[in-house]
Amino acid sequence: MKIIILKNALVQAIQNVHKAVSSKSTIPVLSGIKMAADESGLRFTATDLEIGIETLVPTLIDDEEIVQVKEAGAIVLSARFFGEIVRKLPGKTVEIEVKQNYLTIIRSGKTEYNLHGLDHEEFPRLPQVAGNQVFSVQSDILKDMIRQTSLAVSSEEIRPVLTGVLFTLKNGNLKFVATDSHRLATRESIVEAPPEMEFTNVIVPGKSLNELGRLLADNDVLVDVVVAENQVLVKMGHTQFYTRLIDGQYPDISRIIPTTFKTGLTVNTKELQGAVERASLVAKESDNNVVRFNIKHDRLEITSASPDAGKMSEPIDEIQVNGDELLIAFNSKFFMDALRVIDSPDLLIEFTGSMSPFLIKLPDNPTYLHLILPVRIY
Amino acid sequence: MKIIILKNALVQAIQNVHKAVSSKSTIPVLSGIKMAADESGLRFTATDLEIGIETLVPTLIDDEEIVQVKEAGAIVLSARFFGEIVRKLPGKTVEIEVKQNYLTIIRSGKTEYNLHGLDHEEFPRLPQVAGNQVFSVQSDILKDMIRQTSLAVSSEEIRPVLTGVLFTLKNGNLKFVATDSHRLATRESIVEAPPEMEFTNVIVPGKSLNELGRLLADNDVLVDVVVAENQVLVKMGHTQFYTRLIDGQYPDISRIIPTTFKTGLTVNTKELQGAVERASLVAKESDNNVVRFNIKHDRLEITSASPDAGKMSEPIDEIQVNGDELLIAFNSKFFMDALRVIDSPDLLIEFTGSMSPFLIKLPDNPTYLHLILPVRIY
């Protein structure tokens, strides 16, 4: 293999795939990035066997030469070491030449590195995903759906299905659900899908989705999502992202979400966020992280207390309350997580009693829903 | 105590003193910040018994009211917790009121905190430093002297004196020396001192100096340095910084610094820095971190090699070399540390053989000197 590539394109390609590099595998080749050069350009691949990322740097972009392939071939280089070196190279272009015994020469400006590479034949092939179940969604919408749900996945491996986000699709409506059994987040969106396409129990690991979220651009370009038996493939321009799915049956959540409420309030997001954040500073000094809402007919009082640290109170006046007065307590971390992924200026919160789950909704966007279980007040 | 203070001034004052708060003391009061209000304003103090910082927020600055003292008094509040709370307060001003049993009420906007304070009488008094040995130096120069020498102090407690920076003063010339016995940094500056003032073995802990460096402003305002038997006091405007000194006799370094050289070269700082940094990426993959200079009559070649990772080479051509050709090896970390604190565009490096210490000098500034011991090339 012998190629010359623009340094910026090389840095970007390594950055795209490096999140899939295994950090603790006992298989040496998995700590590397595979580069393969052919007439189409230079293809970078990394995988930890849970996720895989492949990105092609094409020979030309808008008539500008990005990669010049002088000799086809492939090599695997240590991701960490190669990444560090490339970022520090002095020149605008980088020449990579593979000699005998995987010896790889990297030249840029007057700098020359001789690196020990690994056999690309030992690098696992990414799975071939059969392409019959494909839908298309805007990159920024998919990114938002991930951001607004993946925070609610469980971090405990006891119930593996809860460490993933449930994908369902019916009548062109894609829905994400995540819950750790203390809170639940859902987000829906209409996508471009064949009318008969439908799936109900596709569980994507939350960690994989966070990596996918990083790759997705904040623009309205469509990305293709291929759903197969054991894996999902996302195609974004020259980059492909694979993840395995989680086995098992996701619990039925339809009965958990209340459909009526006894107390409803509309409140300014930023104001509430600030108050709960200030209350949480006291709450997190004690074990349970509890913040209370004391809801009167035109007023919400936010309080917290810790035996060691002290207590805090802050009213939000002149808010709109419908229904009964209520005193309710909850884990402030869950509440703050939910508010962090909300972009709407106002919130709708619906309660059905001090021991029932409450809902955070967006007045301007019915596709989002966040449910939080309260904690008992002693 | 009852005061009203501008939030920004409160945040700044906490930030000034918090570096002196003890992070692991068994004495609870040392994890706090003492606030004391009187007619001059609100005074903040923190100490870990090694260093102490005191800062006064005066009642008025340029006719603007900064602190309004309604009732004099004092309290100690948990530095971490209080600092977190203050940063998040919603209002432009903050009211702090101390009630019975050290209960402290903090009000800002509509937020109210009730915090458990501690008895200020238990807080240690900062030492009274006798003021007969005082010199004055520009804030930015003192900051630079610290930056250029403290990196060379030893991190090993086996020889405590080497964990400090040696201060000496003679004929108005202040000199800092630091060495960990692998490298040595010195920096001098003319300061304003009484003609008879002189000291020779004042050893200031490197850690203390790093905290002092953070407090020093990048301007030419004079700061006063008071040197006493066991401590040094630095007065910067409304802020005072104390540190204890290290006991013991600093080694005589005068014979270590070569006064002649066999090979001298002048080289562009940035170019050399880049090359050594690139070489160090390979060097740090092996234990010894070694980078080599191969000096020819008009050319410097920088190389490094690691059995696992590979090797690197980069020439710097057309440089000015005086004297013999030379092959020398050294710990690249030391070299990079030295270059990081140099602002000159060019460097002068003087060698006296492959097993003798070499000097890094600045062509435009004879007050700075950095010495590095080479390593043996097998």
TrEMBL record, chains A, B:
GO terms for biological process: DNA strand elongation involved in DNA replication. It comes from the Bacteria. Pfam families: DNA_pol3_beta, DNA_pol3_beta_2, DNA_pol3_beta_3. It is found in: Cytoplasm. CDD domains: beta_clamp. Residues 1-127 form the DNA polymerase III beta sliding clamp N-terminal domain. Keywords: Cytoplasm, DNA replication, DNA-binding, DNA-directed DNA polymerase, Nucleotidyltransferase, Transferase. The keyword DNA-binding applies. Its main location: cytoplasm. One of its GO terms (cellular component) is cytoplasm. Residues 137-252 form the DNA polymerase III beta sliding clamp central domain. One of its GO terms (molecular function) is DNA-directed DNA polymerase activity. Residues 255-376 form the DNA polymerase III beta sliding clamp C-terminal domain. PANTHER family: BETA SLIDING CLAMP (PTHR30478:SF0), DNA POLYMERASE III SUBUNIT BETA (PTHR30478). Belongs to the beta sliding clamp family. NCBIfam families: dnan (TIGR00663). Forms a ring-shaped head-to-tail homodimer around DNA. Confers DNA tethering and processivity to DNA polymerases and other proteins. Acts as a clamp, forming a ring around DNA (a reaction catalyzed by the clamp-loading complex) which diffuses in an ATP-independent manner freely and bidirectionally along dsDNA. Initially characterized for its ability to contact the catalytic subunit of DNA polymerase III (Pol III), a complex, multichain enzyme responsible for most of the replicative synthesis in bacteria; Pol III exhibits 3'-5' exonuclease proofreading activity. This is Beta sliding clamp. It comes from Tumebacillus permanentifrigoris.
